[in-house]
Amino acid sequence: MKLAVFDFDSTLMDGETIDFLAQELGIKEKVVKITQEAMSGRLDFFESLTTRVGLLKGLDYQRAVDICANLPVMPGAFETVKALKEMGYKVVCFSGGFRIGTTPFKEKLGLDADFSNVLHHKEGKLTGLIGGEMMFGFSKGEMLERMQAVMGITAKDTLVVGDGANDVSMFHYADKRVAFCAHDILKKEANIIIDNKDLREILAHM
Predict the structure, then answer these.
(1) Disulfide-capable partner of 76 in 52, 92, 112, 200 (CB 3.0 to 4.6 Å)?
(2) Nearest to 117 by CA among 19, 36, 49
(3) Residue 181: CA atoms inside 13 Å, Cβ hemisphere, count?
(4) What is the pTM of this model?
(5) Residue range 102-125: average pLDDT?
(6) CA distances (Å), 163 to each of 41, 112, 148, 155, 182, in order?
(7) Dihedrals φ, ψ of 163, to 5°?
(8) 9 in active site
(9) Which CATH number covers residue 34?
(10) Which helix (H) or strand (E) covers residue 89, if one does?
(11) What is the predicted pLDDT for the residue at 39?
């Protein structure tokens, strides 16, 4: 058995989920700026996440669900997941984003599991609060280490793919480390760098 872990935003999905949600409230530019600072490593991930989610307070929850059901798939995602599964990989998604985004993709792409955060809502509106297993900069690495222990998988049989600073922690536990259209902070930790927006390019390195 082998394990492939993909980031969600700007990796399996073509864009940032929170930017699509912020656009609904007319605050996209404000949120994009914070997102870029966080993904480049200039802002603490937890602080940036809670700040950005706080700005979504009042958004209709069902509208958020509908937006997330129609997020764009990254070119090559379907083919890459299918090919990896044929090679014997379990394919999962780790996201500092939201379950209302990752779970529809799990179904679309045939992923084995998705790990992400939950947007709190009350009386049909987002409250600006969030909770979950991917809240911190170290979360992905910690979850990957746990999964490897449970599944009996080593770094040698682990592939990780991401684009931002909160993906660095999981790079420490994988021999194949793909920086996909990534920020410089992640490229420094990678041994496979892909700058073309097509996930199928990963397959040439398998």
Answers:
(1) 200
(2) 49
(3) 17
(4) 0.95
(5) 98
(6) 11, 21, 22, 19, 4
(7) -135, -15
(8) yes
(9) 3.40.50.1000
(10) strand 89-98
(11) 85
Given the DSSP bridges, would you call strands 2-6 and 158-162 parallel, antiparallel or unpaired?
parallel
CA–CA gap between residue 184 and residue 99 (Å, rounded): 27
Q: In what order do the strands lie in the sheet with 176-180?
A: 125-132, 113-122, 89-98, 2-6, 158-162, 176-180, 192-194
Q: Where are the alpha helices (DSSP H) in 110-176?
A: 139-151, 168-171
Give the model confidence (pLDDT) of 58-70 as tens digits. 999 999 999 999 9
In this prediction, residue 38 carries a pLDDT of 86
Catalytic residue among 9, 114, 163, 167: 9
pLDDT at position 147 over 90: yes
Q: Is 157 marked active-site?
A: no
Domain total for the chain? 1
Stated as kind and residue range, the H or E segment containing 50 is helix 45-54
Residues 38-88 have pLDDT tens digits of 888 888 999 999 999 999 999 999 999 999 999 999 999 999 999 999 999
Among the listed residues 7, 114, 163, 167, the single catalytic one is 7
Taking the C-alpha atoms of residue 138 and residue 165, their distance in angstroms, rounded to an integer, is: 10
> Of the candidates 91, 96, 93, 120, which has an alpha carbon nearest to the alpha carbon of residue 104?
93
